[in-house]
Structure formats: structure tokens, C-alpha cells
Design a protein that fits this description.
Layout lengths: L5 E2 L10 H7 L1 H4 L10 H21 L6 E4 L2 H16 L5 E4 L5 H12 L3 E4 L10 H7 L4 E5 L13 H11 L2 E5 L18 E5 L10 E5 L25 H39 L3 E3 L10 E6 L4 H10 L2 E2 L5 H4 L6 H5 L4 H5 L1 E5 L6 H20 L7
Parallel strand pairs: 1-11, 3-4, 3-5, 5-6, 6-7
Antiparallel strand pairs: 2-8, 7-8, 9-10, 10-12
Helix pairs in contact: 1-8, 3-8, 4-5, 8-13, 9-13
Bound molecules: pyridoxal-5'-phosphate (PLP).
Pyridoxal-5'-phosphate binds next to α4.
Length: about 400
């Protein structure tokens, strides 16, 4: 097979789709009015924002008034956690989360700990899923917030969100979920799942980087995130990024409409790659649950090799992938996600993530399956990593 370019890092970010770009363009050069202005010209921008709000709400089964546009998923995570803590601090200071959340959650929790909040991290076991019994056992009189990610960005495991939501609602505890990896890829229903707050980010489902949203259930009056003008009902001041909001709304509507077929198509690519790797390469471990798994996520540990070296050789062959190896993240310790599911350092260092989305094809998978085994063989032949 001749050299190809294969983008298999859609969990890091996705290509903006042509439809989304086309929907956004008029809001740069034609309908560029400030939505807060009173003249008719600005009305088009205002209408576009409200249309997008409706599109996001419909995708989540929420009300448009419960959707707030923000700059990114990280901002939504910060607002949800710090806002919920400020709202409920007189009732209690105990928060429940997991050790393998995104750093936007973990570092927000660090900040809250410095302010006197206490955090219980539920075990996530070797399949990367929390158990509802553990949640029930961890809940205390002073528990005010549960934040558990919908799906993990590294190993793709999808959490029992509806069960968690039911427990929290019954106990009167706020439930936030970081659904950045889930939206557009698996069905999400904030009402059926009893979700109080949800974070999402456009660039994980073919909208641009730099636009996100939070679902905040009606009646939950967490403090404003940004003080200033009257935008977003004063909750998040700052002139709206109209083109990006339009892009987000368009992308979420497209993703939701094609989710039933597209998630099956992408899951078939995922399974073909996982099974193909297991067939062709000895000493491989699949990380994360094989059933409760994002359709686009492949994460394997290839023993006796370094993820970093694998990435460089894949890159030389035109393949973009990711690793939970230490060097990749620029720190000494391997990924906190792989540590949380109990991998030893050596196994974590040999981890490789491929993630697929709308533009991924079967040819991409075939190409990876052709290139990866000889790369592993070469690296193992020169490996100092102690294979007998
Ligand atoms: C990408 C990601 C984020 C951060 O979103 P940004 O829009 O990049 O700030 C948060 N949580 C998860 C699970 C993610 O995958």
C-alpha cells in the first residue's frame, strides 16, 4: 500500500466538517452585527444564536433556556464545579468524582480542595467503569456534588450515567457530567438520565475549537461565570462568538441526526482495528471496557515497546495517533487514566490510542493494520524493555 495520511486522533480534536464551515461563513462577513445591538441588522446574529441554542437543546433533550454558550469544554467544567461548590457550600463540602477525569475537572477539584472542600474518588476498576454501589456507599450527609465523566477520553469507557443520575436525584445531590467525549457519538438525554449540569465542546464533534456549552438545569442558580454585559442571561458575559455558536449548533444537529447509523459504522472500524491488532501482534492488552465503549475509541497496550517510539514511527508512515506514555505528555508519570485502571508503568508506557470519527474509513484501518505490526516487530527486536 502506498503511503497515506491517516488521522486517527479524533479524541484530541476533529476536522471541522464542510457543512459546518459553510454554515459559519456568513456570520463573519455578512451578518457580523453585535447581537446586543438594537438595529435590525444585528437581529440576524441574535436569531442565529437562538437557533443554535435550540439545536443544542434538542440534541440533549433540554430546554433552550438551559443551554449556555462558553468558550470551551474546560470552561464548562470549571464553571460547573466551582459554581456548584459556591452555591452549596453552606450545605456541605463533600464532592464525589473519579480519578480519571479530564484535567479540567481534576485541577478544578484541586482548587476546591485548597478552599476546604473534600473529594472522594471512586474506584474505576480495570474495565474503567465506576460501580453505582460504590457511589451509594460514598455519599454522606454533607455531599453536595457528584461529577463523573460520561465517557473517558483515553480508554473510551462509558459510565452508567442514568443509574448515577437516578441515585443523585433521589438524594438531592447535584450531578454534573463532563460529556465532552460523548456528545455527537453516543445518545445523551439529560432528562431521562437525571443530569443537572453537562459540559460539551464543539471541536470533539466536527465544530471548531474554542466553542463549548453547558447545560444547566432550570432552577439551579450557580453564580455567574463571567461578570460584564447581559449576554447569556448575565451568566456568562462577553460578546457572543456568533460564527462559532452557529458552527456548534450545526455540528450537533448533524451528529445527532446521523448518530444511529454513524455510531454503528465507526464502531465497526473500532472493532476491526482491535481484533486485527490482537490477531497480528502478540502480547497486547486492550484497555477499557469492550462493550461500554465509545464507538471511535481503540486503546491498547503493546508490551515491551515505548508508546513514544510507536508514535514516531507511525508518524513517519503518515499515521496520527496518541499514547498515554510519559514522554508524550511531557511528564515523568504515565497517564493518570491508565494508572487509575491499575496498569503497571511498563504496560502504560506501551499504550496507544487510535480514535475515529466521521471522516475515518475502512482504508484507514487497513493501512494501520498493515503498518503497525512490522513497526512493533522492529521496536521489539531492539527493545531494552526486558522481553525474555
Ligand atoms: C477535550 C476534553 C475537554 C476539554 O475541552 P476543550 O474544549 O478542549 O477545553 C474536557 N473533557 C474531556 C473529557 C475532553 O475530552
Amino acid at each position: 500500500m502506498e503511503k497515506r495520511f491517516v488521522y486517527a486522533d479524533n479524541a484530541a480534536t476533529t476536522r471541522v466538517s464542510d457543512e459546518v464551515v459553510a454554515a459559519m461563513l456568513p456570520y463573519f462577513t455578512e451578518n457580523y452585527g453585535n447581537p446586543s445591538a438594537v438595529y435590525g441588522f444585528a437581529g440576524k446574529a441574535k436569531e442565529a444564536i437562538e437557533k443554535a441554542r435550540g439545536q443544542v437543546a434538542a440534541a440533549l433533550n433540554a430546554e433552550p433556556s438551559e443551554i449556555f454558550f462558553l468558550s470551551c469544554g474546560t470552561e464548562a467544567d470549571n464553571w460547573a464545579l466551582k459554581g456548584a461548590a459556591a452555591l452549596k457550600k453552606d450545605k456541605g463540602r463533600h464532592i464525589i468524582s473519579t480519578p480519571f477525569e479530564h484535567h479540567a475537572i481534576l485541577h478544578s477539584l484541586d482548587t476546591l480542595k485548597k478552599e476546604g472542600f473534600e473529594v472522594t474518588f471512586l474506584p474505576v476498576y480495570d474495565n474503567g467503569r465506576v460501580k453505582v454501589e460504590d457511589l451509594k456507599a460514598a455519599i454522606r450527609e454533607d455531599t453536595i456534588l457528584v461529577s463523573i465523566m460520561f465517557a473517558n477520553n483515553e480508554i473510551g469507557s462509558v459510565q452508567p450515567i442514568a443509574e448515577i443520575g437516578a441515585v443523585c436525584r433521589e438524594k438531592g445531590i447535584l450531578f454534573h457530567t463532563d460529556a465532552v467525549q460523548a456528545i455527537g457519538h453516543v445518545p445523551v438525554d439529560v432528562k431521562a438520565m437525571n443530569i443537572d449540569m453537562l459540559s460539551l465542546s464543539g471541536h470533539k464533534f466536527h465544530a471548531p475549537k474554542g466553542i463549548g456549552a453547558m447545560y444547566l438545569r432550570k432552577g439551579i442558580s450557580i453564580p455567574n461565570f463571567m461578570d460584564g454585559g447581559g449576554q447569556e442571561k448575565r451568566r456568562r458575559a462577553g460578546t457572543e462568538s456568533v460564527p462559532f455558536i452557529v458552527g456548534l449548533g450545526t455540528a450537533i444537529e448533524i451528529a445527532t441526526n446521523k448518530l444511529p447509523e454513524e455510531s454503528k459504522r465507526v464502531a465497526a472500524l473500532r472493532d476491526k482495528l482491535i481484533d486485527g491488532i490482537l490477531e497480528r501482534i502478540p502480547d497486547v492488552k486492550v484497555n477499557g471496557d469492550r462493550v461500554h465503549r465509545l464507538p471511535g475509541n481503540v486503546n491498547v497496550s503493546i508490551k515491551f515497546v515505548e508508546g513514544e517510539s510507536l508514535l514516531m514511527m507511525l508518524d513517519a508512515n503518515g499515521i496520527c495517533a496518541a499514547s498515554g506514555s510519559a514522554c508524550t505528555s511531557g511528564s515523568l508519570d504515565p497517564s493518570h487514566v491508565l494508572m487509575a485502571i491499575g496498569l503497571d508503568h511498563a504496560t502504560a508506557h506501551g499504550s496507544l490510542r487510535f480514535s475515529f470519527a466521521d471522516y475515518s474509513t475502512e482504508e484507514d484501518v487497513d493501512y494501520i493494520l498493515e503498518k503497525l505490526p512490522p513497526i512493533v516487530e522492529r521496536l521489539r527486536a531492539m527493545s531494552p524493555l526486558g522481553r525474555e
